[in-house]
Amino acid sequence: MVHKVRAVVAKEKNAPVTIETILVPDPGPGEALVDILTCGVCHTDLHYKLGGIGEDFPSLLGHEATGVVSAVGQGVTEIAPGDRVILNWRAVCGQCRACAKGQPQYCFNTHNATQKMTLEDGTELSPALGIGAFAEKTLVAAGQCTKVDEDADPAAVGLLGCGIMAGIGAAINTGEVKRGEPVAVIGCGGVGIVAIAGAALAGATTIIAVDIDENKIEMAKKLGATHGVNSRQADPVEAIRELTGGFGAGVVIEAVGRPETYKQAFYARDLAGRVVLVGVPTPEMQLELPLLDVFGRGGSLESSWYGDCLPSRGFPMLVNQYKLGRLDLEAFVTERIKLDQIEEAFHKMHEGKVLRSVVEL
Questions:
Q1: 85 — phi, psi (to 5°)?
Q2: pLDDT by residue (tens digit) across 227-284?
Q3: Cα dist from 338 to 40, 202, 242, 342, 345, whole Å
Q4: Which residue from 53, 210, 231, 237 puts its CA 20 to 30 A from 115's CA?
Q5: Helix/strand/coil (H, E, C) string of 180-237?
């Protein structure tokens, strides 16, 4: 059986998205059909729309989602129809070299659905991150579904599917923030502010938010930052050092993805400190650092992929923290919108007016 549903499609590079009728097949072996409840409007979807993540158009956008499993294919045992799930883009294979050495959070061969969703004329769609959840239904690999409690707000916990996990994971998993350790976050967009919340959850006591926008800095303070630095008005490296006894932060998280801000992160860390890059650079960007400084400052320079998370482990843990009142996921939901408001939501996100717009279906 093929299901006809409404979905948001980017037909060509940098063109406005449109609502189309798409065809979604019943699940085959190892696949799951999911009725979408909510889907966050993430910067990654904007990258797809602008052609920044390949040019496989038309693209079926949306990936930061919750839903209810409506059907599963042959061989699927870990989920069943009726299960509430968060969708993820790291369905581990269990066989690649990362999985074989006990690091499935770095799986190099993640699974997606084998069958293709299409437009009505048969044109194959490229689903964002193998998910494509700005749709009433989507088809994914069963391993892309992580079961969650039904009593959690789907709009809030759905953000764990990408942005929240990326930010919190950058602090807790990649940066390994310790209790009492000073942390600085450069860039207070959605992921940066979540990294601040992650640092607070890990027990950091000095958490410095750096941005060029005072509104974002104030928002960061509401969600865990103890200090704010406007880098239009002050040198962020000197400001971070001043706030950390002259030493620099033990962990500096760069959530912008630019060479200029990465250099600030590099020099704002303490000796033997850690720099975590979670901001996504564009292909043409180049970084130059004196090699002697790289050697002389010690520590580590790391990139955080999806918060270095294993969804089956990380999602339930963070849902529990949310339910215990330790992680205010609902604070990241700025507005709840409909499918036909996504283009407007992209503009608001680009202008820094929202943490997350969330589509409710």
A1: -135, 155
A2: 999 999 999 999 999 999 999 999 999 999 999 999 999 999 999 999 999 998 888 9
A3: 11, 35, 46, 7, 10
A4: 53
A5: CCCEEEECCCHHHHHHHHHHHHHCCCCEEEEECCHHHHHHHHHCCCCEEEECCCCCHH
Q: Which residues pair with residue 34 across a beta bridge?
A: 69, 138
Superfamily of domain 167-304: NAD(P)-binding Rossmann-like Domain (3.40.50.720)
- Reported as a single tens digit per residue, the pLDDT across 299-358 is 999 999 999 999 999 999 999 999 999 999 999 999 999 999 999 999 998 787 888 999
Would you tell me the crossing angle of helices 190-202 and 214-222 to the nearest 10 degrees? 30
**Cis bond before residue 154 (omega within 30° of 0):** no
CB count in 10 Å sphere of residue 4: 11
Residue length of the chain: 361
Both tokens of residue 47? 């990258």
Instruction: Give the Cβ contact number of residue 162 at 10 Å.
Output: 29
How does pLDDT run across 14-26, given as a tens digit for each residue? 889 999 999 999 9
The domain limits of the chain are 2-161+328-360, 167-304
pLDDT digits (tens, 9 = 90+) for 29-69: 999 999 999 999 998 898 898 887 878 899 999 999 999 99
Helix (H, G, I), strand (E, B) or coil at 68: strand
Q: Do strands 249-254 and 183-186 pair parallel, antiparallel, or not at all (unpaired)?
A: parallel
Does residue 287 contact residue 258 with C-beta atoms inside 8 Å?
Answer: no
